[in-house]
Amino acid sequence: MVAILPGMREPTFLILTALAGAPLHGYGVIRQVAEHSGGRVTLSAGTLYAALDRLTGEGLVEASGEEEVDGRVRRYYRLTPAGGAALQAEAESLRRNADLATRRLAAWSPHPA
Amino acid sequence: MVAILPGMREPTFLILTALAGAPLHGYGVIRQVAEHSGGRVTLSAGTLYAALDRLTGEGLVEASGEEEVDGRVRRYYRLTPAGGAALQAEAESLRRNADLATRRLAAWSPHPA
DNA sequence: GGCAATATAGCGACCATCGACATATGCCAC
DNA sequence: GTGGCATATGTCGATGGTCGCTATATTGCC
Question: Could you give the CA distance from residue A21 to residue B104 in angstroms, rounded to a whole number?
Answer without folding.
Answer: 6
